[in-house]
UniProtKB/TrEMBL annotation:
Keywords: Glycosidase, Hydrolase. This is Hydrolase. It holds the Pfam family Glyco_hydro_2. Gene3D superfamilies: Galactose-binding domain-like, Glycosidases, Immunoglobulins. InterPro entries: Beta-gal/glucu_dom_sf, Galactose-bd-like_sf, GH, GH2_Domain-Containing, Ig-like_fold, Ig-like_GH2. GO terms for molecular function: hydrolase activity. Residues 150-245 form the Glycoside hydrolase family 2 immunoglobulin-like beta-sandwich domain. It comes from Haloarcula onubensis. Residues 1-30 are annotated as: Disordered.
């Protein structure tokens, strides 16, 4: 049921908000009129929506940022401190409902990126960002449902938890079913579990086995079949959509037991369109950095076969409440667990202040870098403790720069410090490169700046692929203001680096080991689960050569070498499995 809302900036106190005036607002949304406010109240009035056999009314909020209180007819009925999970509020019986929802800016460390100036004020407005609706149900009914798919020795299974609510005693059977959607092959499964409870709520846990499952895969490996899981009690039911898969990290990322190399992009302001843009750039993973993922974005990742790297909303230096972090990690992964796209969870993003900005590439600069990295210590025990509460997917407790021994490293040579040639030194000296959570360069609308960004993006992306990094993530896909690190402008307009990234992220691609004047190898990178014969052709200032090589699954092979000079133009082409990809270079001086 849709609702008409009014809003007002209010004082963040403990009283029912009573502003002098209310103004119409769109919910869900982020009313820009309230940018900069510490607290915003939203108010709506609606007649009792129940009809027929309905006995319960539920206010369902998604993305109520960040600390939320809900009043119904003047009575405080709910509070929440986790916008990343849904808030479902059972309302008392009434002929009319006056609902007031107050959303406050974060009161702890878990506001994430929205509690920093890395996003503009209009993106940080306290509000109901994703969805708000009134729902009605008979008695008893299934109030909420969670699911987690996994592979088993006999096929696959979905572990389901269903919360049953009733005004009286219940002694019945809850029917669970798993059925394929669309044209997915295979039949459905059905099972029952007993429900015995007094009035109130009870949680029923059950596992539904799926024989001969159709597995969900990243888009460059396979298809994305999905299943609808239903829990039915009498005439009431609750459902969710999932995909059957397993994911792990043990000497590399794996999906369904098969090794996977992920090519990713960071989303600072995630939208469904960004997921589609990531796919068009040949990315197989998106990292939603230091914030909750909108439900529509997670669903788009499921649909398009894009792995989801989900951060907790925790970024920047400073301690945090471990118990609060553990609760948040558990609830976030329980809420997202049914999404087959969910590939990993990170806890603390960039936990130390940048220590190398502005350093060059000389010997003294490297000594300064090493000294500053040594001083930038970080105690990872709290983040590790929080990560222990994540179930079903790999975790990267600490995401940050070299020198603090992060689980996933962020590397910005050529932008924050040094030049691209320093990447090899950073990786070798600090033993990093298997999981790269961020690389790239900032830019403005200036043509020269954008050309420089494209060169840095290409050089680092291709170097990390040559080094056989398991996960490589560009920071970032799209700007959130007039300038930034995005390879797309805020409105989605492509910068030169977007096309460069798309070429560099081809599953099979041929690259230069060093795209600067001097000697360079020609290296074929093959990120596919089976080997192939690749035919490589290179056109160097009009001189063409060709070579054929057998390359193994997820292999790297040198197919030739060149002597390059400034101003040279080079086109590399690779034909494999009936497809042809190209990679074009114009050799500059130092990048």
């Amino acid at each position: 049921m849709s609702l008409s809302w009014r809003g007002a900036a209010v004082a963040p106190d403990d009283e029912l908000p009573s502003p002098e005036t209310w103004e119409p607002v769109s919910v869900p949304g982020r009313p820009t009129a309230f940018a900069g406010a510490d607290a915003v109240a939203y108010e709506t009035t609606v007649s009792d929506p129940r009809s027929g056999a309905d006995e319960h009314v539920v206010l369902a909020l998604r993305g109520a940022y960040a600390h939320t209180r809900v009043w119904c007819n003047g009575e405080l009925v709910a509070e929440s401190d986790s916008y990343v999970t849904p808030l479902r509020v059972r309302l008392p019986e009434a002929e009319e409902y006056r609902l007031v929802v107050e959303c406050r800016a974060p009161e702890d460390r878990f506001g994430g990126l929205h509690d920093t100036d890395q996003l503009p004020p209009e993106r940080r407005v306290p509000g109901i960002w994703w969805d708000a609706a009134l729902e009605t149900y008979p008695d008893p009914y299934v109030h909420a449902m969670r699911g987690r798919p996994r592979r088993t020795e006999d096929g696959a299974a979905v572990d389901v938890e269903a919360e049953v609510v009733s005004d009286g005693p219940v002694d019945d059977r809850l029917t669970f079913s798993v059925r394929p959607t669309g044209e997915v092959r295979g039949g459905g499964m059905m099972d029952r579990a007993r429900v015995e409870t007094e009035s109130g709520s009870a949680t029923v846990s059950h596992t539904v086995d799926v024989r001969d499952p159709s597995l969900w895969w990243p888009h460059d490996i396979g298809s994305q079949p999905r299943y609808v899981v239903r829990a039915k009690l009498g005439e009431a039911e609750h459902s969710l959509t999932t995909g059957l898969r397993s994911v792990g990290y043990d000497d590399g990322l794996s999906v369904n037991g098969e090794p996977v190399r992920a090519r990713g992009v960071t989303l600072l302001d995630p939208t469904v369109e960004d997921v589609e843009r990531a796919v068009a750039a040949n990315a197989t993973l998106v990292r939603v950095r230091a914030q909750g993922v909108p439900p529509a974005v997670a669903e788009a990742c499921d649909e398009h076969g894009v792995l989801l790297w989900q951060d907790l909303p925790l970024t920047g230096p400073g301690g945090f409440d471990m118990d609060r972090g553990r609760e948040l990690a558990a609830s976030l992964t329980a809420h997202l667990g049914h999404h087959p796209c969910l590939a990993c969870v990170a806890v603390h993003d960039e936990p130390v202040r940048p220590y190398a900005d502005g350093l060059g590439s000389g010997t003294l600069d490297r000594l300064r870098y090493r000294f500053r990295a040594w001083r930038a210590s970080y105690n990872d025990a709290p983040a590790e403790t929080v990560a222990d509460r994540v179930e079903g997917v790999p975790t990267f407790p600490v995401v940050g720069p070299p020198g603090i021994d992060p689980d996933a490293v962020t590397l910005y040579p050529g932008w924050r410090y040094g030049d691209v040639s320093d990447l090899a030194w950073l990786c070798d000296h600090y033993g990093v490169g298997s999981v790269v959570a961020g690389f790239g360069a900032g830019t403005t609308a200036d043509d020269d700046a954008q050309a420089y960004q494209a060169r840095v993006v290409r050089a680092v992306a291709e170097a990390l692929r040559r080094r056989e990094s398991d996960i490589v993530v560009l920071d970032s896909l799209r700007d959130v203001a007039d300038a930034g690190t995005g390879v797309l402008a805020e409105d989605g307009t492509e910068k030169p680096a977007y096309g460069t990234l798309s070429d560099s992220y081809q599953p099979t691609q041929v690259v230069l080991s060093d795209p600067t004047p001097g000697e360079s190898d020609i290296v074929a990178c093959h990120d596919r689960p089976s080997g192939a014969t690749v035919t490589v052709e290179w056109d160097h200032n009009g001189n063409r050569k060709q070579a054929e090589q057998v390359i193994g699954a997820y292999g790297r092979v040198t197919v030739g070498s060149l002597t390059l000079e400034a101003g040279d133009e080079l086109t590399l082409a690779a034909a494999v499995e009936g497809q042809v990809v190209k990679n074009e270079y114009r050799i500059e001086g130092d990048i």
